[in-house]
């Protein structure tokens, strides 16, 4: 990964990230340094690496990437001893959990393959129309996640804003992918709009049900969809790269990737520090390269989300509130509708302290 000297200084000051794949080149544009150019008063975060694996296809070969868990979840000291005892008690159920995960992933792979067959049938030689349908579908899960989490908030079951921030940033990114495909004419035929919109309608309610039942399963399904999107764009770039370099970039792509406020662009990329990726857009080839790289970042984020409590906004600085406990908002959360209902009848430690 090649970064300019200023970008290296920024990422080294705040986040001790190491480039694991020197072959992967990320374009960097320092025309808009945002708020990251002037060092804030935050202390450097102590970070810990967690081996979360994600498959990232390169232009020449396939390699395995190790994704950082950008901001580890804090564990209160009082819970460390309890978790040791609970780990022994839960060891007997680990076999059942592995079986459940296997079933969930098998169902997701079957559903993803079914969607791919539909797209292959109708869009074998119509790339932009296929991309339009794909982007219409790809943004739906983030709407579903946010809808369920807002419902949980209404009942007091959920108080973790980072998930809402990241999922909204993901939907914002996918929306601009969709706008790019529309500007390229991907939605010109009524049948493509009809198919994409009706698939998105049923996909939304299916994802809401799946996310309420098992967030882990819903996140894995979204990872499968994003992985297919990455592979689709990667093949398209390799096949049409020379022609794409001769065509101008759509105006909406230039505004999104090089515009004034790139906060939301940084927000969905939870495996990297803010301001460390600034794309250059000179032609249509650069646009599709960045869309492909966006899908890879979505894959990493969805992979991290499959471990409960593993997601945190790249712009969060939780360590700065350690000396101000009165300013901290209790982060209530739950893992699915069953767990939410169960916890609503179980008094939390904070409620017990208030009553005592």
Brief overview, please?
Keywords: Electron transport, Iron, Membrane, Metal-binding, Oxidoreductase, Respiratory chain, Transmembrane, Transmembrane helix, Transport. The protein is mainly alpha-helical and 356 residues long. 58% of the residues lie in helices and 3% in strands.
What do you see in this structure?
The protein has 356 residues and is mainly α. The protein has 13 helices and 2 strands, in the order H-E-E-H-H-H-H-H-H-H-H-H-H-H-H. The chain has a domain of 216 residues: Alternative oxidase (Ferritin). Strand 1 and strand 2 form a beta hairpin. Helix 4 packs antiparallel against helix 8.
> Helical content, roughly?
55-70%
Architecture per CATH nomenclature, i.e. the level-2 architecture of the domain at 103-318:
Up-down Bundle
CATH topology of the domain at 103-318: Ferritin
CATH class of the domain at 103-318: Mainly Alpha
Q: Please, what is the CATH homologous superfamily of the domain at 103-318?
A: Alternative oxidase
- In terms of DSSP E residues, the strand content is under 5%
Quick check: average pLDDT? 74
Largest sheet: 2 strands, antiparallel
Shape annotation: globular
The radius of gyration is 21 Å
Give the neighbour order of strands across the main sheet: 1-2
Global structural class: mainly alpha
């Amino acid at each position: 990964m090649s970064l300019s000297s200023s970008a290296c200084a920024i990422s080294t000051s705040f986040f001790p990230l190491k480039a694991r794949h020197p072959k992967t080149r990320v374009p960097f544009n320092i025309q808009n340094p945002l708020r990251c150019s002037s060092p804030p008063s935050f202390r450097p975060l102590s970070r810990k690496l967690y081996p979360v694996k994600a498959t990232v296809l390169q232009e020449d070969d396939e390699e395995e990437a190790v994704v950082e868990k950008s901001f580890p979840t804090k564990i209160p000291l009082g819970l460390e001893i309890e978790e040791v005892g609970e780990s022994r008690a839960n060891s007997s159920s680990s076999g059942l959990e592995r079986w459940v995960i296997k079933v969930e992933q098998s169902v997701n792979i079957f559903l993803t393959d079914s969607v791919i067959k539909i797209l292959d049938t109708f869009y074998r030689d119509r790339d932009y129309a296929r991309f339009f349908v794909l982007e219409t579908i790809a943004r739906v899960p983030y709407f579903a996640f946010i809808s369920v989490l807002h419902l949980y908030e209404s009942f007091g079951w959920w108080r973790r804003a980072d998930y809402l921030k990241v999922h909204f940033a993901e939907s914002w990114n996918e929306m601009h992918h969709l706008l790019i495909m529309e500007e390229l004419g991907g939605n010109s035929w009524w049948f493509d709009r009809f198919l994409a919109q009706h698939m998105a309608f049923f996909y939304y309610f299916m994802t809401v049900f799946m996310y309420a039942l098992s967030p882990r399963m819903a996140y894995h399904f979204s990872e499968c969809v994003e992985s297919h999107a990455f592979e689709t764009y990667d093949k398209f770039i390799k096949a049409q790269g020379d022609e794409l370099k001769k065509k101008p970039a759509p105006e909406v792509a230039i505004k999104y990737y090089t515009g004034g406020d790139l906060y939301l662009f940084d927000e969905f990329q939870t495996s990297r520090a803010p301001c460390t990726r600034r794309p250059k857009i000179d032609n249509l080839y650069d646009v599709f390269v960045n869309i492909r790289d966006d899908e890879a970042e979505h894959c990493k984020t969805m992979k991290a989300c499959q471990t409960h409590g593993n997601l945190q906004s790249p712009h969060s600085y939780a360590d700065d509130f350690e000396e101000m406990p009165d300013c901290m908002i209790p982060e209530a959360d739950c893992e699915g509708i069953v767990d939410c209902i169960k916890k609503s009848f179980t008094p939390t430690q904070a409620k017990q302290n208030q009553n005592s």
